Amino acid sequence: MKVTARIAGAVIAALTLVAASLITAPPAASAQLTEVTGFGTNPTNLRMHLYVPDGIPARPALLVAVHYCTGSGPAFFSGTEFASLADQHKFIVIYPSATRSGSCYDVSSPQALRHDGGSDPVGIVSMVRYVQQRYNTDPERTYATGASSGAMMTNVLLGAYPDVFKAGAAFAGVPFGCFATTDGSSWNSQCANGQRIMTPQQWGDLVRAAYPGYSGPRPRMQVWHGTEDSTLRYPNFQEQIKQWTNVHGLSHTPSLTDQPQPNWTRTRYGGTGTTVAVEGISLQGVGHNVPQSGMAAAAIAFLGLNTGGGGPSQPPTTPPPGACKVTYTMNTWNTGFTAAVTITNTSSTQLSSWSLGFTLPAGQTVTSAWNATISPDSGQVTARNAGYNGTLAPGASTQFGFQATHNGNTSKPPAFILNGAACT
Q: Is 148 a catalytic residue?
């Protein structure tokens, strides 16, 4: 159903409120926002602006920051803290601009919801590949974030391009595929009103169908939403969490629930650390104009952009025998399985990095992993931390996962060795 002019005006006005809530923090540096043209395939004629801080490292990280309806890349640059955080942590930021009427992104067409299918996502991925090549960015540290329409696009980019984006943070958005339409319109009232309720499996299947045959790691996702959002209503918060926990093969039951600020309720899934697979922040009493105080920095921490990402520089600390705990959860099917592995440091010593050794039962072969590297792919294997999750404080937990094939043997490893010490 095509939205009427009156409804469209009200929707765009509501979405624009996001801009008013974002703290203006222009970067205190000599670097400037620059428009880039001729960056590659761009079927919808998106505009591209780029911010490269002074003094970036040899292999910088890359963030795509996607604006709200009626916004633009330059407006999102000047109205959010991402550029000043980029100055602080030395990562590059791409600011796309939508060019269609209303300046909303296409998150509904069949082309947008399919890997390399066309429309806005293809143009944004072209921007990413241009910057990766020109600035030699680290492809393992490519992320997306956005507000409202940009949050919807963040879900779309992570769902359709898991080979490009490693994590995302979505502020007041909807699940991947929730806004899908087939009548040529760009507004899905059922989804916007929080009436598209599905099972975690159904939501996860939408993501998996976007890139048939893909078996690699899936991006981590952080979701923010206000309980009083009247534009993209609050049920979309839990539907996003259902989707991304299913994509990661995780339980919908949180591993941790806390309140980092008085009206924030934070839930983490697949671990308790900052860079878990899925994190949700529910904002009590907040509407679609999501408040900004502390949010950009929290998103940067979740993405891992507040660290150098170069891996541990200190030798691993060995915990005493038994001073670590490992839980190992499998989700199996006829010829394969995913495993979610949680490591808890039960010692009084902080670990500067970790490697977990275990023996895969006969007939099991790892095909992909996330939040860790695993080698070899069968037999006695070792999982080693990624560049962003090596530090493990006393009492803290982290999680990694992998996908594997099996020949009918779906038993679990009998024992685990963390940094040379046996775990319980």
A: yes
Of the residues 84, 108, 148, 397, which is catalytic?
148
Contacts of 290 (CB under 8 A, 6+ apart): 18, 21, 147, 171, 172, 224, 225, 226, 283
Domain covering 324-422, topology: Immunoglobulin-like (2.60.40)
Domain ranges of the chain: 5-303, 324-422
- pLDDT of 118 strictly over 60: yes
Res 267: pLDDT: 96
Give domain 5-303's CATH architecture: 3-Layer(aba) Sandwich (3.40)
pLDDT in tens, 183-204: 777 889 999 999 999 999 999 9
Which of residues 50 and 395 earns the better pLDDT score? 50
**Residue 363 near residue 406, CB atoms below 8 Å:** yes
Q: Is 207 exposed, middle or buried (0-12, 13-18, 19+ CB in 10 A)?
A: buried
pLDDT band at 318 (very low <50, low <70, confident <90, very high): low
Closest C-alpha to 241, from 205, 216, 204, 295? 204
Give the Cβ contact number of residue 118 at 10 Å. Answer: 16
Residue 418 has pLDDT above 50, yes or no: yes
239 touches 174 (CB < 8 A): yes
User: In this structure, are strands 380-385 and 355-359 parallel, antiparallel, or unpaired?
Assistant: antiparallel
pLDDT recorded at residue 320: 62
